[in-house]
Here is the input.
Amino acid sequence: MSISLPDICAEVLLDEGLIAARVAEMGRQITEAHAGKTVHLVTVLKGGLFFLADLARAIDLDVRLDFLAVSPYAPGQGGVVRVTKDLDDDIADRVVILVEDVIDTGLTVNYVRTMLEERGPADLEIATLLDKPGRRIAPVPIDYVGFEMGDRFLVGYGLDLDGRFRNLRCIASLRDDVVLG
Ligand code: IMP
Ligand code: MG
Here is the structure.
């Protein structure tokens, strides 16, 4: 069964098959890069949830999952976010991969990366399904990128518009009249 595309969507940019193939490939890359090791996948709720679930099952290693939740940064605060749910596990000396749905301005991931770095992981990498390099404010070292995208606002596969449409199996852009109000 597939979920019908809401009428606010302009175009399916990435369909289910394309996403699945790319996530499988990223899983293989991570498996090769960390052969024999335990890998801690850390995701920022909620957008990264579906990517995390698929990526974790595409990695043929001992995988652990952990979650962070942050409140969005306020404009003009230099990317400071508030942590509303911290990790359960100690990541000191662990191989950690921060798993993101999308890196846009880079402010959120940079803040989280710095916070995790201070806990002394053996290795800290970043995997993002989507990268929007055209909107970057803070440079981010990204180790694994699924797809490079343009500047459009996207929904589906975890990405939301006011909490809706996360459960779409594809990733779609919005109609201009929805974006512009
Ligand atoms: P940042 O701008 O890189 O800090 O991204 C912050 C957050 O904005 C992401 O983790 C997403 O939750 C959200 N975001 C960025 N672009 C989109 C989009 O196209 N659709 C839905 N959410 C987005
Ligand atoms: Mg996010």
